[in-house]
Amino acid sequence: MVNGSRGLSFIAGGVNTNISSTNSVITDDVWTHVAMVLENGTGYFYVNGVAVGSGNLSGVSTPSGQTGVRIGERVSGGSIPFKGKIDEVRVWNVARTQTEIQSNMNGELCQGSSNLLLYLQLDQGTAGGNNAGLTNVIDYSNNGISGTMTGFALNGATSNWVAGAVLTPGMNGDQVQASACNSYTWPANNQTYNSSGTYTTVLTNTAGCDSILNLQLTINTANDATTTQTACDSYFWSVNGQTYTASDTIVENLTAGNGCAYTHTLRLTINYSYEKSDTIVACDNYVWAANGQTYSATGVYTENLTTVKGCDSTLILDLTISTIDNTVTDNGDSTLTANEASASYQWLYCDSNYAIIPGATAQTYTALADGLYAVEVSNGVCKDTSNCVEVDYLAVEEMELMDGLTIYPNPTQGYLSIDFGRMTSGQVTIVDLKGSVVLDHNFDGKNLMDLNLDVKPGVYTVVISEDTGKVSRIKITKL
User: Fold this and answer.
1) What is the mean pLDDT of residues 102-108?
2) To which CATH superfamily is domain 328-391 assigned?
3) Pairing mode, if any, of strands 191-193 and 184-186?
4) Which of 107, 182, 309, 396 is found 20 to 30 A from 55 (Cα to Cα)?
């Protein structure tokens, strides 16, 4: 330090750890070369190459793990700032002789030495200029121990970089700031760097001395991004302002805020809403599986659902409810008529567990024997069976035997004779109690007909139908 008497002082604290030079060896506002040497426990001061004092420093110790080198401020033990300008700082690991000090005190060093621990020329900035951000101090030794300026305004005539002492040029250097994406190849040494940091290379300048370049490098990165998205019907991607209506993989090449290129990939799945319409014709009522509801009236019904993919769907039911009339009219003349028009019919014999009467498929059925009859009616949508209707004409039929008609013997063992009397032509039909025809003959021009009734014993009905439309019925018994 420069003490109050404008002499030099070395302060370490303790016994044999502090010395001072003679007074008034430092002149204000003049560049002065100052050197201190510690050799075998003795300290020596030199000003402009001239010895100005020495003392016992045998108690000086520099333990490890403490604060590193500071220039212009005390390391520890309180603040003692240097109020002045500093230039061309060198630290050696050997005790320099007075001759060695004098030999290069007025010039910059030409190249690094194995004994040179630290060499700061302090000449990177512009004196008194705007040096904002220029806080890195280049070390021109072979050790690359760069320094950091702390507490400087870095703009204006004070607290800034200054014009140094006028020295013979020697080794020089420069500081380069660069930023790149992912990696940077430094043209000075053709080396490629993949991470941020401070890098140094040594060249030879025009004076034949070392030229040290420091690179303050910032490596920026931009990570590729992937977005996986599922949407219904369409998706608007804010990354590129596009709307998509089909599943796809889209890759956008983008630039991050730090200037680095990256890709953003959209893996898009588009599911679709849909509208489905069903046209149904049902009998009496219809249970719609879409909602489990039962409908008994014709109409158009709508149900809004969500698909398993999460999209809206609309189901439309166009329903026609059909009905059928299953009633029967007894015409009173052995004929029965189904009241449902324009349908399909099948007449049934109720007395025989609703057995089908062969050929009885017209809307009107003529009963050939007494009994209970029903009809199954179908209109293509609905199918239903009427109640059983009783036909009983025996008393009437026996009274209607006419024109000398005679049937004998009755009961019969199997042979049956019919005398048609005055009848000239017609049809003889014999049916069993189920209404099934067991025998059918024409009697055109015949007065007498013999029949072999080869049927099971039981009661049968003989129906004689004249061509004039008259019908006679009589029950016979086969023994």
Assistant:
1) 92
2) Immunoglobulins (2.60.40.10)
3) antiparallel
4) 107
Q: Identify the residue with better confidence: 220 or 458.
A: 220
Cross-sheet strand order for the sheet of 364-366: 328-330, 335-338, 364-366
CA 214 to chain CA mean position, Å: 49
- Degrees, nearest 5: CA angle 75-101-49: 90
Residue pLDDT, tens place only, 251-263:
999 999 888 999 9
312-322 and 274-283 beta bridge pairing: parallel
Secondary structure (3-state) at 177: strand
What CATH number labels 9-215?
Answer: 2.60.120
394-478, which class in CATH? mainly beta
Q: pLDDT per residue over 355-387, tens digit each?
A: 888 888 999 988 877 788 999 999 888 999 999
Q: Say if CB 6 and CB 21 are below 8 A apart.
A: no
What is each CA distance from 146 to 72, 117, 133, 141, 463, in whole angstroms? 16, 12, 15, 10, 134
Q: Where are the domains of the chain?
A: 9-215, 225-271, 275-319, 328-391, 394-478
Indicate the DSSP class of residue 104: H
Residue 475 in this model has a pLDDT that exceeds 90: no
Q: Where would I find the beta strands (DSSP E) of 154-307?
A: 172-181, 184-186, 191-193, 197-204, 210-220, 225-232, 235-237, 242-244, 248-255, 261-271, 274-283, 286-288, 293-295, 299-306
CB 247 within 8 A of CB 261: no
Highest mean pLDDT among 10-14, 25-29, 378-382, 393-397: 25-29
Look at residue 115 and tell me whether its pLDDT is greater than 80.
Answer: yes
Domains 9-215 and 394-478 share a fold: no
Long-range contacts of 475-479 (CB under 8 A, 24+ apart): 475/370, 475/394, 476/407, 476/410, 476/411, 476/412, 476/416, 477/410, 477/411, 477/412, 478/411, 478/412, 478/414, 478/453, 479/411, 479/412, 479/413
The amino acid sitting at 402 is M
